[in-house]
Specification:
Elements: H1 5-8, H2 14-27, E1 33-34, H3 46-57, H4 70-84, E2 93-96, H5 99-110, E3 116-121, H6 126-133, E4 137-142, H7 153-159, E5 164-170, H8 182-195, E6 198-202, H9 223-228, E7 229-234, E8 247-250, H10 253-266, H11 272-283, H12 287-308, E9 314-315, E10 323-327, E11 335-336, E12 339-340, H13 344-355, E13 357-358, E14 360-361, E15 370-374, H14 379-393
Parallel strand pairs: 1-13, 3-4, 3-5, 5-6, 6-7
Antiparallel strand pairs: 2-8, 7-8, 9-10, 10-15, 11-12, 14-15
Bound molecules: 4'-deoxy-4'-aminopyridoxal-5'-phosphate and glutamic acid.
Amino acid sequence: MKLSKRALSINPSSTLAIDAKAKKMKAEGVDIIGFGAGEPDFDTPKHIKEAAVEAIKEGFTKYTPASGMIELKQAVCEKFKKDNGLSYSPENIVISNGAKHSLVNTFQAICNPRDEVIIPTPCWVSYPEMVKLANGKPVLLKSTEEEGFKPTIEEFLSAVTDKTKAIVINSPGNPTGMIYTEEELRAIAKLAVERKIYIISDEIYEKLIYDGFKHISIASFDDKIKELTILINGVSKSYAMTGWRIGYTASNEKIAKIMANMQSHATSNPNSIAQKAALAALNGADDIIDTMVTEFIKRRDYMVFRINSIKGISCIKPNGAFYVMMNISKLIGKKIEGIEIKGSDVFADVLLENANVALVPGSGFGSDIHVRLSYATSFENITEGLNRIEKLLETVI
Ligand code: PMP
Ligand code: GLU
């Protein structure tokens, strides 16, 4: 029997696949260094865990409203006011099962068949697949390392057609760690307002930002762009809560309503206990963020220094998130352990097999001359992993 063509067109998530493979090898006793992880290696703070325990004890274990409990929506509104200067009310907010679910809801809510969604690349692996799932057409807009992994406004303009429905903005970005400046965001906002295009602004890494950069939400410029923007955020990265699965959107009321309707049939409410934990995260102290930022800067600086001192590989310095895009173009066509490096997938395989180092090939992000390393792992692991890479690359011919 024939299966759904749309479902068959969806690729698996390479980020999750690598992470699962590395975790499995580790569990089997292989001495693996994992640079695949897209999650902070810090524990969820104690007060957040305690709020969850308390929720269980007090019997907060039943359905909540499908789009999330009102107290959490209010806390999300407070967060947008405090951090982003944005005024929303609970009617604009939908709480979902992780920011990934928020994004899926968003594309489902706005796309009609063949609507185009512009996605600057290198991009996070899931965006194009989510657009395809919603029957839309992902339009991948390439950007180079020389451009700092950001398309220029002229490049954005040239990708716009009369079918363009939305542009995805992800700043700080995964997998590049790049950050759009206020000027760049204003230019994109102007384009969106003039051409009536939605902006999907994925701000999940907003707190993981370094070097004096300040996070600016594109929705904060004026009411016109705010009306067109669907903001994506969540507690996964900021509070080391990837497993709890709480993400949220802020959008105009109409979009929020249809996303809530869809969610009421698809999943009902996100886990009630995790919602209580997210509430504690948003209402509590931000110490974990300061700790992570201090540590991530140290690790990033070391990783960037080491990569650029190893022959055959290089990288630019990212200003946010916890990823480095390592350029392997000089290795393409060369041999490592007798295997020709045809692209990022082969390189990642060779590294895993011969050096027990896991990283994510750039192919899934839209750049086959790069691989992504996450520095959400200990300094010792970073040192050891880079030592192993250096040693293996000595054998390149
Ligand atoms: N957006 C980006 C850019 C991400 O890297 C991730 C990480 N998975 C998500 C969204 C989804 O986050 P969550 O774990 O909350 O679903
Ligand atoms: N976003 C993280 C990553 O890119 C987690 C894995 C995923 O959800 O794709 O590695």
